[in-house]
Amino acid sequence: MFNDYSDLKFEVFQIMNEKSEIVKPDLMPKISDELLLKAYRFMCLSRKQEEIQTEISEGGKNLNFLASAGQEATEVGYAIHLRKGIDWLVPAYRNNAAWITAGFPIENIYLYWLGNEAGSKVPEDINVLPVNIPIGTQYSHATGIAFAEKFKQSDGIVITTIGDGGTSEGEVYEAMNFAAIHKLPVIFMVENNQWSLTTPRKKASATASLAIRGVGVGIASTQVDGNDFFAVYAMVEKAIACAKAGEGPTFIEAITYRRFAHSASDIKKDYYDPQLEAEWLKKDPLDRLRNYLIANKKWDETKQKQLDVENEVLIRNEINSAMNKKDTKLADIFQYTYAKMTPQLEEQLAEAQAYFAKEGNN
């Protein structure tokens, strides 16, 4: 009498398996060695940055930090497609690899995690929105921008992303439904890293896949191996082509794994499954792509050691610059929520200024 779709599954799209073998050579994307190595370097840079920031967090030198380690193939795989000043990235809060790839300075990223308002200042030549902390709002923002791009008849596309837990928010469906109705040039990524805070994916949703949620609002939807750079790159490339052809949005669930805790203030060992973790570590996206590059004579261990040293120096210089930044203004905290401050914000600013003046600070 009723149709039961609770076990409806998608084939997880994969080009390169866990052993770094190309299992679908006919579907390999046409990507130059230059761009491929650039993508790999971004992945390595992000991983090293997060290792250093985790070390710093444990020393109490920043307020908080949410790492995307383990998700680099997904984030670089979609962000590497963005054209500066044309396309848009509308992120969540766990998108370090995507931010770097899109051109966001590491200094600004670290400033953000220090609680410095300057960290949300976006360079003029990139279209990246500041971090979205309210869960799901980025989907609405991305849909609105995509609507504007279509209205302007530009060829700009919008990519937004969310975690698996975030797909339970009602705003996510409202945004996707509107995008589907108007056939907007937006790509909805879901980084299914197996955890929503401390809740495992299987306890957060009864559906066999998250991709089915896109089908429910009439959007072309798929699952992809999120630790396979080639698969993510190829699927996003196809989604972009569909968007530019006026076919509307795509919903892509990338199956990946969150290597670190939910945040720097979280205690992962209290809830994670060591056996599951061990299995996922064998699928690490950096190892997979590096082994492929080495096997195909595009990389070697000497280059890797050199890159590791260069990344370490770059990251620590950027972080030191952020930590020594002294020109932050108190008013910046209040002035940029709206085009003009509301009476409530003006009142709060005056109160804060009076407090810090009393304390002897500006």
Description:
Helix 1 (33-58) crosses helix 2 and helix 5 (137-152) packs parallel to helix 6. The chain has helices at 33-58, 72-79, 96-102, 106-113, 137-152, 170-181, 201-204, 212-215, 229-244, 274-281, 285-295, 301-323, 332-335, 343-359, and strands at residues 12-13, 88-90, 158-163, 186-192, 195-196, 199-200, 220-225, 250-255. It has 14 helices and eight strands. The strands form two sheets. It has a six-stranded parallel beta sheet with strand order 1-7-8-4-3-2, sandwiched between helices. Strands 5-6 form a two-stranded antiparallel sheet. It has two domains: 12-200 and 207-328, Thiamin diphosphate (ThDP)-binding fold, Pyr/PP domains (Rossmann fold); 329-362, no CATH class. It is α/β, with parallel strands linked by helices and 362 residues long.
Structural class based on helices, strands and sheet pairing: alpha/beta
Biggest sheet layout:
6 strands, parallel
Helix content: 40-55%
CATH architecture of the largest domain, by name, is: 3-Layer(aba) Sandwich
The arrangement of helices and strands along the chain is EHHEHHHEHEEEHHEHEHHHHH
Number of strands: 8
The low-confidence parts are none
What is the level 1 CATH name of the largest domain?
Alpha Beta
